[in-house]
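Session log. Operator J.P. requested a structure for one protein chain; no other inputs attached. Running the standard single-chain path with token output.
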Amino acid sequence: MAKRSTADTLLDGPTPKHAQLREILREIATRELPPGSAMPSERDLTLRYGVSRLTVREAIGQLVAEGLLVRVRGKGTFTGRPRVDVRLHLASFTEDMRQRGLHPETTVLGHAELPPPPDTAEALRLAPGDPAYWLTRLRKADGAPLAVERGWFHPAAAPGLLGHDLTESLYSLLHRHYGVRLEHATQTVLAESADAETARLLEVDPGSPLLVFRRISTARDIPVEDMRSWYRGDAYQVTMPLRTEAGESGRPSEEVAP
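Structure written below.
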């Protein structure tokens, strides 16, 4: 880290030292380092500013909460990258990232044919005990983990689906091999804290905020997909255009879903 001026010395007074350090780190992150750069280590900051490790963690934690810094487990703290800003529409992750000039990558974490949980069986209109295709994947953009997908597909819509290359766009695969074009979906968005396994895959701390999407997609009014996706809250945001329904006043609704 470059030598800093005496103006950056932490002083005793009404302003807590963690707040003083937070503003120093804010300046480093916004003016001195490009996005994705490593910040000084907690040990270096502790020695340089003569404060406790707790004070350093408090200052960094506040900037992580703001989205200015990102903690990567086992690697350190980095300046944040601009969030992927997505307008809701029915498109695959692969297509969406390419349209944004980002390089998409997919790792298949597991797949199987087995009976789904009751809510998924109902969504896919399967009888209790009937099997479906289960698939979980890790999705990356420009090498950075962005989302974990865990979903189910109706076997009648795409027989033998699990035998294909599942690292490609599933929407393209469904259309190309099965003539299935997803036309409509209902998507629910909620917030969750990352559990240990999802945090490990997304390279964030357990308990980090995540955006969770559950999407039930249909083709010709027949359910094909029940997909849940966990997106990093520090790297992903959603823009939802709103409009007033024709003939109604003051009742905005989502223009598209999903």
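Operator note: The radius of gyration is 23 Å.
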